[in-house]
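Dear Dr. V.,

Thank you for agreeing to look over these. As mentioned in my earlier message, I'm a first-year student in the group and I'm still getting used to reading structure tokens, so any feedback on how I've presented them would be very welcome. I ran two proteins. I've put each sequence directly above its structure. The first is here:
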Amino acid sequence: MLPILTVSGTPGLVYLNGRFCGETGAAALPITPDGTQYLEMRPFDPGARGAVLRLTMENGRLTSALPSDVFGVEWPGGWIALEMRGSAPGVDETYEPELLAQLDMPGGRYLLVQEGSSASFGRDADESIPLPAYGIAGAVLRPLPYAGLCIAEGSCAGGRFAAVFRAQDAPELVEAAIGVSARVDGQGIIEVLEAEGDLVGHGTMRTIAPDAQGRYSPRSEETVWADGGPRWPQSPLDTARAWLEALRLGLQDEAAGYLLRPERAVSVSNTAGVFDSVADLPADGKGGVRLGVLSMEGPNLARVKALSFSIAQQPGPQGPFKIEAVEEVPCD
């Protein structure tokens, strides 16, 4: 069976080896499993930039690098999905600057300013430093007990932010953190809780502290519950996902707790291997509990391995189901 290539992204027309194949988001292109082929996308918008790709295939897999504005995922069964992000024409958006906070320091008066959703710190626009937080709803500036250092903190689109700046003449960003919560104490120690975004609700509590000269470095890191307690899985599919996510986070004891036979934890985890994230598989009508594990093969190319789970109903402290077995799904 030939690999199938689909193209999504910027609306336009798709050509393979010079032949018209349809529109982005609608065309499914059979391609030869070996050799070189040329894919072209012509945007509908005359101001947008198109793309021409030289795709090199070997045994049904991409072996050529993809450009930075294209992202690819190789799914089981020979499906290669490309997202082509041809650049759109620039939009001239002018925002009225909003003064969020100001602070007088030995180097002058420093301002925290937001334009649109972007914020910056400095004495004027020419030397401003971007703040790595967006959509700030409230912020304060205050000095630290170290020469020339000050803090910006408040709420933002990602939760809470805390940033330490050097305000001696030209400003400099020293340290920044964004999380569910982020705070700086009177000695300049940053505490940030970062949610892992997994099903069960893990989080990481990080502490970043200055030395006597105000140089920052990590002090501690601890796995915690982002919402104060776990949300244990309540279905077979969620049990499989929770097990994979525990493996990804390196929580071996928790991962073993999802297994019917915890003593087989090492051999079962070897089936999943090392991966970067968990992926839902496209519906194939076969039923059962299946999930994919996605591994980055490059900066913008990912491959997905399909796994099949046998699940038994057996209540325990981590939910009402246990994993009996895990197998890699062979490619059709």
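The second protein is here, in the same arrangement:
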Amino acid sequence: MIKRPDEIVEIIKKIDDAGYDVCYAGQCIVSALMGETPLDWDMYTDCPQEKIREMFPDGEVLGKRMTRLDQSTFVKSDDLNVADHYDGVVVDIVTLEGSLEDQLGLYDFTCEATAERKNGSAVDPYKGREDIRKRLLKPVGDIGARMKKNPALIFKALRYVGLYGFDFSKELYDVTMANADRAQFADKEEILYEFILAISGSHAGKFLKMLKGMNLLDTVVGPDGISNNPRERKDYDGLCEGIDRTKRIPTRRLGLFYLVFDRKYEKALNHLPHDEETLMYLDDAKHVCPKLYFCGNEEKLKDFIYKVGWDKYNYVDKLLKAQSIAHGLETIKHEGRDAVLKQILRENQAIFEEDLKIDADDIIEAGITDDKERAQYLLSLLPAVIHRDPYKNDRDKLLKYARSFNKSKFRAALRDITWVR
């Protein structure tokens, strides 16, 4: 018997107490047997949906035979090396029409086509559990016909490679290659969904190798994103070898992936419909990472953090470190930057406007200006002063600089320039 979360135990008990049979099947069993805690569960029962909806009034009605129970909560991770995730379960309760074996025959792969009854006994007509132990992906039924109709199944199969390191059976490989030219017609949203799951898995390197080896890379980055540049091709191969050494953070892994396309970065990135937040991170990967790389002293590092904020800094900092890990690059610059940042934090040096010893009201009260917007603007000029010299974070000194900048646009423009004799 696989380990059942408390929410699943309670749902099973409620259906069982009502006098109905119930079991679960699909990827939840794969995930559990691979040592993970499943989020999504497929449950099958002989209980009519009317009764299910009486027992679970908060469920979402999905057709005549299915009710979805979403008992999950989103967890925003405080640890930069742990991905945001969902706790709890999302359960689809389906009323069977026909036998359980018939239902299992509708799954795409044998690893999914295995069920477990409420007493823990297995229903495994396709020997899916043996294939899970072997990490072998085998098709159920006429997978070729299904791929012709829905070529996104190719990427669903590759998801099992990236997540768990499965190998394709010869039959599945032959069918996939026979339908590979149809992958360009797959729904891009589905490709993106499967791609992110696969590249965030513990066997992402194997997945990326297969993606290239099966000539499917252009379905992810588009034909205009493919590069024939020898260095970029070498970088891709290097990423395949090293990506599994990096943390499984989706935006970080995506940054590593797209960075290898270098000169065709924008075309590669824009082929799939990433959401706006992800695009923001990936734009930073290309355009902000190089700026951070050369922030080797206190002034430059504080100025960088001030301009981009902590969230963006943490992303590009961790991405640069992951890039070094994945490609076996030197880490001396990262170590030096970490040492500088530790000193800044240890000495509680000011970085942002809110860290200053004055605010906009102080500038107004000092008679420098009576305009609130002008005072706020003058305040925004002062961090550059204390980034160069932390000891100038003093009320009188800052007001003196604010008065100077208010009188002279020239001095304000040159506030972050260090003159050398």
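From my reading of the second output: The two ends are 77 Å apart (CA to CA). DSSP finds 23 helices and nine strands in the chain. Does that match how you would interpret it?

Kind regards,
E.
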